[in-house]
């Protein structure tokens, strides 16, 4: 899969293509419907498929300080898109100048002059151009002028997690923030993941017999609510069952919120300085302060046992 950063990276001899545009944070099941349809139609038409997305998130430029928590960094989104069969991903630097493009100018600059769109696939709520003035209706009307067609994909949720709401990154972020990682996974189509570098912490876990990887998460990461979770710690392509703690470590009067993962039944791991990923499978309990260290140790042992059970049940199908 080709990856382009900015319009200037697009090959000059690029021909017609099937295009879909959006932030696509999380590449959730709604996004997968749109992107999958773009890939399908591109193959039918004998042209490549292109996903256009933005960095930073448009809201940060339009309303500074409003950057939403991110469900997936751009490299992870690209990996997920590649798995769906996408031929190219274009990341457009979203600047103040770019945000001021009128809808028609946006279409000409991106879809017509550079990507030579033959077909555009979007969800019903797609907006584009200055002040998000462009919508699917305008996109379709401009297609008559610039020789491309538009298909709109319905994104309604029919599972329990959405309660009838459309698939959306906003809904997924809310579930993650509430600690409902199972509900988020139902929308994402996989467990929610956070990534970062393993850094040195207070090393209390090691002293207590449960050494954890203290993950310095990427900026703007959507981090689940404080608590204990079952999941996996991914290191160099290996997925290790893990008990995960999110919070300020109230037992020791901590103030900084951290994500720490204990690789169950693994000893001698040296992960400092490595980039790792943590997948959240299930919520186990809230973050508590115990009466004594002994009570904490009993709870931690029970947490690890429960996490192992949940992970084993998931692995069995």
UniProtKB/TrEMBL annotation:
It catalyses: riboflavin + ATP = FMN + ADP + H(+); FMN + ATP + H(+) = FAD + diphosphate. Signal peptide: none annotated. Residues 187-312 form the Riboflavin kinase domain. Belongs to the ribF family. Its EC number is 2.7.1.26, 2.7.7.2. Keywords: ATP-binding, FAD, Flavoprotein, FMN, Kinase, Multifunctional enzyme, Nucleotide-binding, Nucleotidyltransferase, Transferase. The lineage of its organism: Bacteria, Bacillati, Actinomycetota, Actinomycetes, Kitasatosporales. GO terms for molecular function: FMN adenylyltransferase activity; riboflavin kinase activity. Pathway: Cofactor biosynthesis; FAD biosynthesis; FAD from FMN: step 1/1; Cofactor biosynthesis; FMN biosynthesis; FMN from riboflavin (ATP route): step 1/1. NCBIfam families: PRK05627.1-3, ribF. InterPro entries: FAD_synthase, Riboflavin_kinase, Riboflavin_kinase_bac, Riboflavin_kinase_bac/euk. Pfam families: FAD_syn, Flavokinase. Coiled coil: none annotated. This is Riboflavin biosynthesis protein.
